[in-house]
Amino acid sequence: MSFDLLKECENAKRIGISGHVRPDGDCVGAVLGMQMYLRKCLPGAEVKAFLEKPAEIFREIQGYDGIDSAFPTEEPFDVFLALDCTADRLGEAEKYFRAAHKTVNIDHHVTNSGSGDINYIRPETGSTCELLYDLFDPDRLDRELAMALYVGIIHDTGVFQYSNTTPATLEKSARLISYGFDFPRLIQETFYQKTYVQAQIMGRALMESIRFMNNTCIVSVVYKKNMDFYDVEPSDLDGIVNQLRNIEGISCAIFMYQTDVQEFKVSMRSDEKVNVAEVAMHFGGGGHARAAGCTMRGNFYDCINNLSLHISEQMKENEGAQAD
Ligand code: AMP
Ligand code: MN
Ligand code: MN
Question: For residue 214, how far is its CA from the centre of ligand 2 (angstroms)?
Fold first, then answer.
């Protein structure tokens, strides 16, 4: 699959870029990294980035303050790029995608079958930022751009811990840190550090978690009223599902938070026994084999019953799978 990013954008006067709703580190790094790169390589073009307001922890990435989270009416873009998602996860930015003269979809989700005129989907790549590293001309990298891509790589690989980390991921990351940004601080402040209330609500979610299916699965839920009590937003709940996944004997961890009456955002993490991308797809979501998500309607018990059915199917299918 050959794809020449700059060729796809040549002659474009106005280029728009966006990523998925509730943007994570990979999404923010990719959108801002792409913006930096296109501005550098195509100085004649106007390049704009649109995203739901990303968490404050990402404020040091160049371009953070310029992200448009108001989604104003715009003339159709000549090229609009959807990064780290399918077009239907762009949220309010989907209107720009639909109206654009040309659409480009760059992603690494295995569940993405391509929603642009031009699609560059690499499920074997651990993050969209790693994929952008491959697409960008290495001579055009600089410290700020390297830092943006590095943020995405560390967030989607759990700081090089998950099985989507390859020797190539580490080689690329080694080249990125050679640009001299303060990577230990970046890892600490964007990935590990929690505010006091974030730690409190995580503690509560862990304490109230329930194991099921012979203690191989675990679930925890945070309701709207809990979020109001602690005055937290969805992004404050990042990391809870990973903690659940760390518990001994757990093959599938589920974390849910309420988004509306009878509606929950569901996050799943698993080991080789369960392909959670398959589970999430049954409910209109998607993701990766070991990290996926979806939105479900019904009460907590309805959701768990429906999920369990598909999780146990996965376990049966993958019986005998060896641990990595
Ligand atoms: P999360 O549990 O939200 O951290 O998401 C885990 C992975 O699944 C990430 O790569 C997400 O981009 C992806 N994902 C989450 N929700 C959805 C969804 N509704 N549709 C497609 N992919 C999703
Ligand atoms: Mn993402
Ligand atoms: Mn990603």
Answer: 31
